[in-house]
Here is the input.
Amino acid sequence: MTHPAIKLIEDRYSANRFDNTFNLDTPEIEDLVRLATSAPSAYNLQNWRFIAVRSKMEKSRLTDLAYGQRKVSDAAVTFIVVGQLPNHTALPQRLHPFVDSGHMPQAMAREWQDAVQTGYSDPVMARDEAIRSATLAATTMMIAAAAKGLVSGPMVGFDAKAVSDSYHLANDELPVMLLAIGRAAQGNWPQKPRRPLTEVLKVQ
Amino acid sequence: MTHPAIKLIEDRYSANRFDNTFNLDTPEIEDLVRLATSAPSAYNLQNWRFIAVRSKMEKSRLTDLAYGQRKVSDAAVTFIVVGQLPNHTALPQRLHPFVDSGHMPQAMAREWQDAVQTGYSDPVMARDEAIRSATLAATTMMIAAAAKGLVSGPMVGFDAKAVSDSYHLANDELPVMLLAIGRAAQGNWPQKPRRPLTEVLKVQ
Here is the structure.
């Protein structure tokens, strides 16, 4: 039997039209972030952060920074999904519960810390990881939202510099995506057609 | 009632140990890629490609390029998830089925093409999009694999230059992730503990 998650993945579409009368309360927003952060990240860095823009005033402000896209305001919440450059000094704290529970040897936690320090000394690699980790979490949030009967609309069309300034992102943070989540209104497009598998897959 | 996909997301873990007697046939690999590519991408660029490394010889070769990580060989298949720099000249072909079906006006397809040409003229933005799109697809594949009773192990620990050379990636392509998929063997860690929500979420 096909698992119901397969159908969710097949049926997901990027929503553009949201029911602007539908709201999400704080526990519902927290649950979306809890699920999003169950995504994997390199070395379990969890180098992500979420600003849930929900109030009418804040949504209006963010809409202006997203070239007036209405879904930013019409959705129940629009997340600014923030990626963080890997920081080896933060890693011990993120691994210690797994060391304390007896899963990970302390020596391995130190090795991972060294690997993070070395591996991301190249700023291109560091930025790549911020984008990758934040996207792992954002994608997981989209599927979690679908499982809750909600729709999502990811956006890269926004003024990244203005969002960083306006929402006081730190120097080691970047806004990777905006993600509108709420209840669908009428008139959304279905999922757009995909390239044939022959174009995108090689088995060897 | 909680949708079963929520439990999949909660229970997913990054597998390190795979049953090396378990194989996936080509239709199963194709189905994983079909589901992965239902992920969204900016402007529906679908700027991704998948090399499914399945044969014993190819897995051995890729293991060497991934610092000897055994899961590359032990998994039924290890995907090289490739991101492509956005190419505005490729976009009309990717949008035309949606124009032909009457969903998208032709003028909008042209606007999107212009937006891709302009928006990704900055090479940093172009690389970001390659990482983001490939990660959207890879994350979706992880959840699809879980829905099929499989486990997955994402990896960034590999020699990107060597993988690009050895698998003949084009100049506008980069290997964003390796993703091992197969049947779990004994001895995997559970999902690692996550940062508290208070550290990663701000509602406003």
